[in-house]
Amino acid sequence: MTHELKRISTRIGSIAESATLKVDGKAKALQAAGRPVISFAAGEPDFATPEHIVEAALEAVRDPRNYRYTPAAGLPELREAIAAKTLRDSGLAVEPSQVIVTNGGKQAVYQSFQALLDPGDEVLVPTPYWTTYPEVIKLAGGVQVDVFAGSDQGYLVTVEQLEAARTERTKVLLFVSPSNPTGAVYSPEQTREIGEWAEANGLWVITDEIYQNLTYEGVRAVSIVDAVPALADRTILVNGVAKTYAMTGWRLGWMVGPADAIKGAANLQSHLSSNVSNISQRAAIAALNGPQDAALAMRDAFDRRRQVIVAELNKIPGMVTPTPQGAFYVYPDVSGLLGRTWNGVTPTTSLELADLILDQAEVAAVPGEAFGPSGYLRFSYALGDDALLEGVQRLQRLFA
Fold first, then answer.
1. What pLDDT digit, counting tens, does each position of 279-296 carry?
2. Does residue 134 have a cis peptide bond before it, meaning omega lies within 30 degrees of 0?
């Protein structure tokens, strides 16, 4: 008897589509059909990439050097710029050889877990988490262990929670500050305590620092390797230009870490994608080495929007919105809206609530199920001031 083979692998068949991109795609389809949908779904700045970065890319297009393959791990000049940025913002001195330039932060996250995990290795994942982490951990054969902190804890996990979740199979701690989806930022003291615990237990740390330059009210997102330098030999830092410089479509990220992990990830990338587009790399050099005025102006705009959306959402009875200190998201606890009837509909989950507000208020938000437990919604405030206020006012009218 001939054994019937599956059409696609179990591994790939088990991957879920990105929930944030799915909601954003649905919102854009409705907009294209003429519906006046306001989307808070995508984590994407509404600003244009700063002009000096665009000019650097235009110059690069005309330079024949950029028409050919370049080193898979990145242009030497960009790796030097990333090493300098890592020292400047994360307090870690690294050689350019410890840097890999990737096609966006997602590839860096993927390669980091591929470099570290064997089947059955456990990863402690503070929850709520970014929707991509579970899928890349699964693809690497790892086992995700959620460590949940709700709005009552400001979405910040404690060492006691992490220790309770640790087993003999625990190999990696994922550390994200500022957080997507919550915007929560660990204090220097909390970061140090968690880092010292990880170091004492011999754990690796993957720290996603993509939002480290988007903090407010004088708050600084202290890197875990700055707080605990002894962790440097077991930490991979993930970052990129997408959020700080409004460069999501340029697909330029990086990973920084110990020589052995970086060598393994570089070998993987040499087969997976080779070098990132040279045009994007030249643009990133301009972003990191050039004037920061435009980036700071965008951060000021995000701060203004942050204050507006928190104040307005907290006017809705049953919605509790902690004030985020970083990134460009709010993550209200909406459990007080569930189980109640709104215009003939009684949502019992945040997924059903998100469908309700899209249908009845023409507002798109991402339900908590994409990031962990139900009972929450994520709103990005990286959209225009007028659209932001109009969108929240629609919710106020719906839930009046």
1. 999 999 999 999 999 999
2. no
First to last CA, the chain: 65
185 closest CA partner among 351, 16, 336, 323: 323
Does some domain include residue 260?
A: yes
Instruction: Decide if 100 contacts 81 (C-beta within 8 A).
Output: no
Q: Mind listing the pLDDT tens digit for each residue in 58-92?
A: 999 999 999 999 999 999 999 999 999 999 999 99
The single-letter code of the amino acid at 321 is: T
226 shares a domain with 94: yes
Preceding peptide of 317 cis, ω within 30°: no
* 377 close to 25: Cβ distance less than 8 angstroms: no
| pLDDT above 60 for 1 | no
Whole-number Å distance between alpha carbons of 24 and 85 = 31
Cα–Cα distance for residue pair 344/378, rounded to 1 Å: 24
User: Which CATH number is 298's domain given?
Assistant: 3.90.1150.10
226 lies in the same domain as 212: yes
pLDDT tens profile 333-370: 999 999 999 999 999 999 999 999 999 999 999 999 99
Count of the separate structural domains present in the chain: 2
Residue 343 near residue 359 (C-beta atoms within 8 A): no
Task: Say yes or no: 83 and 152 in one domain.
Answer: yes
* Cβ–Cβ < 8 Å for 364, 383: no
Q: Which residue range forms the structural domain that includes residue 28?
A: 10-48+294-398
Same structural domain, 207 and 81: yes
Residue ranges of E strands in 155-227: 170-176, 204-208
The DSSP letter of residue 237 is E
